[in-house]
Every structure is written in C-alpha cells, then in structure tokens.
C-alpha cells in the first residue's frame, strides 16, 4: 500500500520537535561567475538537509519510524532498536533512539567513513562492523534482532521511513511558494539523490500530492546506477557490491531500490539521471568554495545533475536540488577546497 498525504502530514507533526525545517537557499549568478562556471538558465535553489542535527535528512525517517513504534508499543524502547547503514541512517537511528532513551545497535560496513562511524558512536550507539555489501549488514542486523528482540529500523524500505523522508518534499513546496510568491507547478523541477529510494520516493510522493504539476527526478552516480536501470526497465534490478562501492558517494552505494520505494518511484518519479565521479567532485567543490553550505559527495549528485546534465532534464524555470547531507571527511574537504572547481 502506497503512502498517502495524511501519512506525510502525521509524520511532519511527529518529528517537529526533533528534525528541523531546513533552509531553502537560492544560488545566484555571482556564485557561478566566481567559480568560473556559466550560470544555468533557471533559478536554482538548494534544500540543505545538511542543516539537520545529524547533518543529513535521515533523521526524518528514522525518528518517524521509531516514534511510531513506541506510540503503538511503549515496551519497544526498553528492548532497543537496530539498523544497518553506511553512516547517515546510522546517525539518524542513534539520535532518535537517544531522544527516546533507548539502546541503538548499528551494523556498519568496514569501509564506512570514519567521520560517520565516530559520529554514530558519539551518539551512544553500539557499532557492529561487517563486510562492505549492503546485504551483509542487513543479514547481520536480522540475526541480532532475532537474538535480542531489537526492533529493526530499515534504511528506506518501510512506509514510516518514506513518510518521514517525504516531509522534505512538503517543505520544498511550501518554501518555494514562500520564496517566489508563486504556486508550484510544472515549471518546477525537484532533484533528489537516490540510493535505496527513501528520500526520492518520499519527496516525489509528498510533492506531487501537494503540487501535482511539479516534476521530480532522481540523481545517482554512474558507478551505482541501479536505480536508473530499474526505472528505465520497469524491473527492480540489483547491482553487485563490487560495482556500487566504486563511487565516492558512500551514501549511494546501496545495491538496489527497496521494493516499496520502487512502487512509489514508478508512480511518482519522472526520471533518473546518472552523473560521473568528476561531476560529483566538481559539484562538491562548488558548494565548498562558493557557498556557505557543507556537502558530502552523496549530497552533491543533484547539483552535478543540474549543472552538467540540463540537456537530459525537462526544462524548468526553477530547480530545487536536495543537498541530502554534509558529513564529509575532513581530508577530502581540505583537498577539494584547495582545487579549482573544474579540476
């Protein structure tokens, strides 16, 4: 069963005191000129989910699901929660569990960025390391949940996760109308990163239920373009871990869309575009050098799509790119700050 408008509205109320209404920032022509780039022919806005307390959108879905579980079964908080994640969802679950006064166990891949692993541990979560494949950590989490009675909080394939992430779409529609004084319609394009599909499916569904004419596309790395293949073939495909782990976008290495997410994507998403590693680096550099926003490469794929793949995207007067997270490794940040945007 697909998530409906009331689910998104309920989620927004549920998470209001924990997740923040992040900013919608306009990128002006001067910023592009300073970076040696030609300004696009559309107004560009950034939905900065990097401004969440954990530095990414993942708090929305994680808290919505955990709070929903506790509402229906208060004893669940005493047993604790478990998830499997490369980093941002891990922090979302750890943060949400801490708010609830509950234990959080996180199964992470051995190649998870240190910055995300340390941040998760700092929130009080117990970390279990396994192999690099997303299937490895899911299997381990299920084994531990069976053994200890933890409630599993999946990264994306659950209606409560989708409803939480979709609150981002509700905010985009509202904030864009506030910023421009115009209703959101077919002249607007929203670009969301896509991996397992929680953010894309939630944003697309919520946005189209409130502004039916809006266009919503996903963006992902060429090296992990399973979602694009699935969308274009209308068949859910899975890429092997040795392929998806090649991308710098560590948050986008999931091997396939979730099944429920795929259903929403097929109904509400208009297209998916894939970007190169060089384009991801260029977009990340632009954020770091020309704006006050801090991106991680996974979050910069949407800007890469807007800047370098405009010919593949539908024409729009206003484009909103979701900067899904800002948890970047310091070494990579320093490296990119020292390079030219088009290096």
UniProtKB/TrEMBL annotation:
<dbReference type="GO" id="GO:0006567">
    <property type="term" value="P:L-threonine catabolic process"/>
</dbReference>
<dbReference type="GO" id="GO:0009097">
    <property type="term" value="P:isoleucine biosynthetic process"/>
</dbReference>
<dbReference type="GO" id="GO:0003941">
    <property type="term" value="F:L-serine ammonia-lyase activity"/>
</dbReference>
<comment type="similarity">
    <text>Belongs to the serine/threonine dehydratase family.</text>
</comment>
<dbReference type="InterPro" id="IPR036052">
    <property type="entry name" value="TrpB-like_PALP_sf"/>
</dbReference>
<keyword id="KW-0663">Pyridoxal phosphate</keyword>
<dbReference type="InterPro" id="IPR001926">
    <property type="entry name" value="TrpB-like_PALP"/>
</dbReference>
<dbReference type="Pfam" id="PF00291">
    <property type="entry name" value="PALP"/>
</dbReference>
<protein>
    <submittedName>
        <fullName>Threonine dehydratase</fullName>
        <ecNumber>4.3.1.19</ecNumber>
    </submittedName>
</protein>
<dbReference type="InterPro" id="IPR050147">
    <property type="entry name" value="Ser/Thr_Dehydratase"/>
</dbReference>
<dbReference type="GO" id="GO:0004794">
    <property type="term" value="F:threonine deaminase activity"/>
</dbReference>
<feature type="domain" description="Tryptophan synthase beta chain-like PALP">
    <location>
        <begin position="41"/>
        <end position="325"/>
    </location>
</feature>
<dbReference type="GO" id="GO:0006565">
    <property type="term" value="P:L-serine catabolic process"/>
</dbReference>
<keyword id="KW-0456">Lyase</keyword>
């Amino acid at each position: 069963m697909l998530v409906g408008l009331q689910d998104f509205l309920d989620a927004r109320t549920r998470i209001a005191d924990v997740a923040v209404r992040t900013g919608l920032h306009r990128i002006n022509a001067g910023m592009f000129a300073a970076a040696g780039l030609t300004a696009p022919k559309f107004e560009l806005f950034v939905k900065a989910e990097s401004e969440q307390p954990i530095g990414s959108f993942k708090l929305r879905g994680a808290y919505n699901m955990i709070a929903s579980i506790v509402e229906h079964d208060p004893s669940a908080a005493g047993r604790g929660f478990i998830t499997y994640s490369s980093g941002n969802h891990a922090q979302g679950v750890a943060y949400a569990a801490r708010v609830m006064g509950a234990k959080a166990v996180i199964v992470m891949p051995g190649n998870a960025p240190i910055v995300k692993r340390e941040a998760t541990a700092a929130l009080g979560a117990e970390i279990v390391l396994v192999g690099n494949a997303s299937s490895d950590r899911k299997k381990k989490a299920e084994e531990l949940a069976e053994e200890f009675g933890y409630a599993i909080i999946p990264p994306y394939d659950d209606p409560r996760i989708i409803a939480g992430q979709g609150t981002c779409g509700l905010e985009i529609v509202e904030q864009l109308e506030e910023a421009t004084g115009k209703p959101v319609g077919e002249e607007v394009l929203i670009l969301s990163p896509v991996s397992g599909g929680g953010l894309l499916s939630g944003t697309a569904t919520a946005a189209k239920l409130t502004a039916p004419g809006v266009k919503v596309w996903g963006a992902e790395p060429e090296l992990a373009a399973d979602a694009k293949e699935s969308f274009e073939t209308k068949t859910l495909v899975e890429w092997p871990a040795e392929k998806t782990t090649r991308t710098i976008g560590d948050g986008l290495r999931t091997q396939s869309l979730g099944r429920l997410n795929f259903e929403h994507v097929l109904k509400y998403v208009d297209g998916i575009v894939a970007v190169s590693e060089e384009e991801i680096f260029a977009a990340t550099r632009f954020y770091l050098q020309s704006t006050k926003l801090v991106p991680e490469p996974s979050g910069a794929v949407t800007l890469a799509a807007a800047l370098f793949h405009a010919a593949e995207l539908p024409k729009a007067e206003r484009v909103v790119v979701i900067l899904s997270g800002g948890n970047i490794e310091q070494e990579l940040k320093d490296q990119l700050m020292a390079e030219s945007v088009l290096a």
